[in-house]
Fold this sequence. Notes:
By secondary structure, this protein is α/β, with parallel strands linked by helices.
Amino acid sequence: MKPMNLVIIGSGNLAHALGSRWLHSERIATLSILARSQKFLSQNWDADLQSRVTYDPKILSTAHLIVLAVKPKDASTALHQVAEHASDSAVVLSVIAGISIAQMRSVLPKSGIIRTMPNICSEIGRSVTGYSVNGVLPVDREYACQVLGELGDAVETPESWLDPMTALFGSGPAYVLEFIGNIINTAVTLGLDSDIARQLALRMVVGTSELALTEPALALGDLQSRVVSPGGTTEAMLHVLHTSRWPDIMESALKAAGSRAVQLGREAAAAVKPQ
Ligand SMILES: NC(=O)c1ccc[n+]([C@@H]2O[C@H](COP(=O)([O-])OP(=O)(O)OC[C@H]3O[C@@H](n4cnc5c(N)ncnc54)[C@H](OP(=O)(O)O)[C@@H]3O)[C@@H](O)[C@H]2O)c1
């Protein structure tokens, strides 16, 4: 398929992850990042990515695919910039939490719209990304899916799944890192060197996930039971986790993230002003 022009609106954390991944994509003719301030300069962007930054919204007129990577509170402004400057044939791909396709459609009645929820692992092509498509021509859909596929595994889902997916998989790297951080801190209190503890903890999480992926039909509990011997160390650890209500804490934390995604959508509904 012919390479196309892609513009990312926003120059924050996710724009950095997406831009870094797409920088050398053969599917993208030109990659541009529309910023509104120079805050990204303090965030260690490499020179090549920085060179793609522009402050001129007229760049949107050149785009075939526009990626909205702004906070929900800024969605309305970004959508109106697209309405003002972009061609109706440009496809809009949003990564914004909580903003529905219907809300985007109220500002962009003619554009193809793809609502997605990737995560920060996009930067190394290891995101798990849900997406829902609305009003996109088959040829544009194929192109957008290929570009999305460069971020990692992408799966088409009903739009109603995207709020829970935001909580589970968009925010997911944060709680995985929280968990790994707890392991490293404890390792240090037990006398391990912190750099070595960090390497070991990160590799253990990758190794465990890869092992589970090799046996998709095996229940995680059955795999876990291979680590547990009666009266052993693992059993002692699991006993503390379960009696401390770890499963309830995880459920509450994930549901809090899910509720926040819904709340952001409601707040944004009030903020997004139709054309
Ligand atoms: N971070 C993640 O891991 C993650 C994962 C999945 C989805 N998301 C979603 O991705 C979106 C961005 O998240 P983030 O973490 O990247 O936020 P962030 O770091 O705060 O970045 C948002 C960026 O948008 C810029 N911006 C806002 N309005 C703009 C406009 N009209 N034109 C140009 N730039 C504009 C901001 O510029 P200034 O800084 O100059 O104000 C900032 O650079 C959010 O909706 C979030 O829900 C994030």
